[in-house]
Design goal:
Elements lengths: L2 H4 L10 H5 L3 H28 L7 H25 L2 H28 L1
Helix pairs in contact: 3-4, 3-5
């Protein structure tokens, strides 16, 4: 991965209201899961660029920009889901993601306790 790749976050394209309306609940849940997976991946890319700030402070402005874009995209997607009328299903996916993040954090905690 070169430096140019580091600066481009993955773009998650949320389905239109018509398209998501044609999906069943499990298909919508998979869309939400994909959204969260993309978000996690993008956070790792942002972290990678943040670490590079130790080598070159000029990367810091890019971190700030990517963080703002990522957060704005998340909030926009949440608003879109709610406007489409799928808040309850989205919340179910949020709970899944929260549990998955707890497991990741727990694994890191165990690994860090060993060092």
């Amino acid at each position: 991965m070169n430096d140019d790749d580091d600066e481009a976050l993955l773009e998650f394209r949320f389905p239109t209201e018509v398209d998501i309306g044609k999906m069943n609940k499990e298909e919508r849940m998979n869309i939400f899961r994909g959204f969260f997976a993309t978000s996690r991946y993008n956070r790792l890319l942002i972290q990678k660029i943040l670490v590079k700030c130790a080598l070159d402070a000029s990367f810091y402005h890019k971190v700030i920009e990517l963080e703002a874009n990522h957060n704005r995209n998340y909030l926009d997607t949440q608003k879109t889901v709610e406007s489409y009328g799928y808040r309850e299903e989205f919340i179910a996916a949020v709970m899944e993601e929260d549990a998955a993040l707890d497991k990741i954090i727990e694994a890191y905690n165990k690994r860090m306790m060993k060092t």
